[in-house]
Amino acid sequence: xxxxxxxxxxxxxxxxxxxxxxxxxxxxxxxxxxPYFWKVSDDSVLEFYKAVGQACSLPLVAYNFxxxxxxxxxxxxxxxxxxxxxxxxxxxxxxxxxxxxxxxxFRVKAVHEYFSVLAGIDEYLFGTLAxxxxxxxxxxxxxxxxxxxxxxxxxxxxxxxxIINCQRKISMLSEISMVSVPPIAALKExxxxxxxxxxxxxxxxxxxxxxxxxxxxxxxIEKVQE
Length: 226
Known about the structure:
Distance between the termini: 31 Å
Number of strands: 6
Largest sheet: 6 strands, parallel
Structural class: alpha/beta
Strand content: 5-15%
Radius of gyration: 18 Å
Oligomer: single chain
Strand order of the largest sheet: 1-2-3-4-5-6
């Protein structure tokens, strides 16, 4: 199973150190989010990924999550990045906009077919595949991985009924993300409810899920499993 290690930081030196560590540890690739908090120019983002790409020999995945970082990667910038950073092979596009994913597919992947466009939101797996993207790096997939796997296989087999069934269940499961802010605590509780080993604890300032929230998660899972 390929393993990608996150090397994200707002400190470039730390990102490079983590990238080198990932390479020594035997990772198959690295994932780096854009610089965050301070908004920087497109040229600065480009230079950031150039430096990370030169730090080790591993394939690099850009992580676009502008809702949290305040710094987005548009299709024009991404095209410049792909053409300037040979090790950049994919993007995880965590953005609540299918048109953004479509623009990346049409403007970047259309020129560089090897480049993988991956949704970062579970509900967008089908939409991403439909416009020519490649897959998903999601969060709910940790709770019920078979739903995304089944949807992907149904898409490959042109099984329309299978696609709709899986899409509806994934959309229903997405309600778990609304139980806690941010959704990490709720996701961990859902993973435990599904019988997977692990701990549901989160560190402050993240808060724990209330007993009422846990019951809500259970009901969501029961509804999906009907």
